[in-house]
Amino acid sequence: MCCESKRRFLLLYATQKGQAKAIAEEIWQQAGAHGLEADMHCISEMDKYNLETEKDPVVIVISTTGTGDPPDTARKFVKKIQDKTLPPDHFAHLQYGLLGLGDSEYMFFCNGGRTVDRRLQELGAQHFYDTGLADDCVGLELVVDPWIDGLWLALKEALQLQKEKEGMNSAVDAVSSSLSTAQHAVHELNLSSKVQNLKLEDEGARGSDVLSQKRDDINLVAPARDTEPSLIHSVPPVSQSALNIPALPPEYIEVQFQDTQGENPHLSSLISEGTTFEVPVTKAVQLTREDAIKTALLLELDIADTAFKYQPGDAFCVICPNSISEVEELLHILGLSEKGDDFICVKVKQGTKKKGASRPQHIPERSTLKFILMWCLEIRAIPKKAFLRALVECTSDAGEKRRLQELCSRQGASDYTRFIRDSNVCLLDLLHAFPSCKPSLSLLIEHLPKLQARSYSVSSSNLYQPGRLCFVFNVVEFPASPSRPVSRKGVCTGWLAELVAPLLHPSKNTLDTKGESSSTEKISIFPRPNNAFHLPADPSVPFIMVGPGTGISPFIGFLQHRQKLREQHPDWEFGETWLFFGCRHQDRDYLFKQLRCFLENGTLTHLKVCFSRDSPTAEVAPPKYVQDILRLCAKEVARVLLKDRGYFYVCGDKKHMADDVSDAVVDILSMEMEADKLEAMKVMAMLREAKRYLQDVWS
């Protein structure tokens, strides 16, 4: 039951991987310390709130998924508010503040939040607090923390104004006193820029625990001879500061070991995205030479006996487990090595203080302990500060306890970014670094997020290879570092590489490997259609493909599909096709040398390749990167885009390629249009808006 309406606000969250929910729970938790109470719901629970009649302020925390879409939990809500028959004053009564989560590595940064924000404004809703846009690329907390700090004054102001509108002039003392001192402070925060310059006062951390230590204790943690900080060691001023640490999250999970036996749930029960398909792996080919820097594999799946449908350009997801060796290592540290195959029952703890506590949807009520650690929890996840705060209570050594407190504190924010976030540290790394930390199993279930299925681009055409689905990937390697003493492979790519090791054929660099090996190995997949990254509907429209490395993957499907269409419809008119491909070495990682076959049969009109690490033999050095070859073909690129109204596709690494390609295209447009860069950028924006410049990128 919420407090009387003068102190209530509605708190909605829309989450994909749990981050928006965790932030909403932090807001809910802090609200009580400010004399407020949050009525918190997932935005999908539309039977539990009604924005059409909502009188109190509304706070919305929303993430972004895919290529800029709202999270799955917000789809119905977004569809509802995008109804074009709604009048422009539909939400004129509504006051709201919105916090969007995103990643600036992707083009449509915070687009989930921006979409909802823009539509609410169009329907007459008013901001009572400036919108915050938090960037996971640099650390969500850089915007989230100050946004939450400023929220309380803004909420109290909104509630006060609401009372005045209703003719209730006797304000609550706590509200009045807060407003009298800082009525306008909140509007002066610029949360989207210069957030690094915000000075966070101790007063701004109300709702957090303030921890002080004696200087003697601090000196034990930070010996004078060590001048450089690390994961396990701090230096002044952090080591000598009183700390503002998050409030301890309430426990809410109870784990009971059972003597009975049974069967673990089917993997399909862990997926909420739709139908899953268990399919055999029929072929595996290593596309790179053994001495290549990265190992690229092509896998072929048999989908003939399933209802799985796809188009070239689509993606699909693979349900993968954690590494068995890492799970066993975790069980050993937790002292549960002998209990991995025991069945456990996961329930909500009686008397928990957590509002609306429920068993996480990705955790089965009953399964073996090993099943939960293998298939349900992302044990490689970078620990959030709330998790670190909970781990403090499980740590017996005073020095280790202090360092964990520092890492989750305001004062230790840069250390957290440097030694945990940027170092890609996971739970196992922390437990090795802080050996006196012995968390309970229930704590891991409370704080570790869902193990996400991994997404891959389809590298085939069902028209060209009926009943088959191919995909290409690099086996991801994480080298050892000071914060992570052991090297690791990617969760999914490492598992797939191990799974298909018996299948790998000695023949390299070809897709036409004879004598497929039979295999009983199966993997579970589900479709993830791409709404835009498809061939032009009109085959006469020309298009350009840019895909270095494994970024070429979807374009193999494009070309296979185009080749089959040409064979089936010789009377059709087909537009020209361009492919720009690059890799390090021609003889080591030129993934698909049979591209020349597409060139020879006319499916591919132009093939441009470059090799960034090969030593040039010519007097004039050849271009090293795909953006360099694009510039050499500037006139043709501009003609395809401007005169012929063609399409431009980019697939691959965001940070080190896609942005450079985008810059190159802007330069090309500027030069060929004889216009300034701003005008070229406007044309580029129009191409994106018309979905004629399309990206399938990853960070």
From TrEMBL:
It catalyses: 2 cob(II)alamin + A + 2 H2O + 2 H(+) = 2 aquacob(III)alamin + AH2. Residues 274-536 form the FAD-binding FR-type domain. Its EC number is 1.16.1.8. GO terms for biological process: cobalamin metabolic process; folic acid metabolic process; homocysteine metabolic process; methionine biosynthetic process. The keyword Glycosyltransferase does not apply. Forms a multiprotein complex with MMACHC, MMADHC and MTR. This is Methionine synthase reductase.
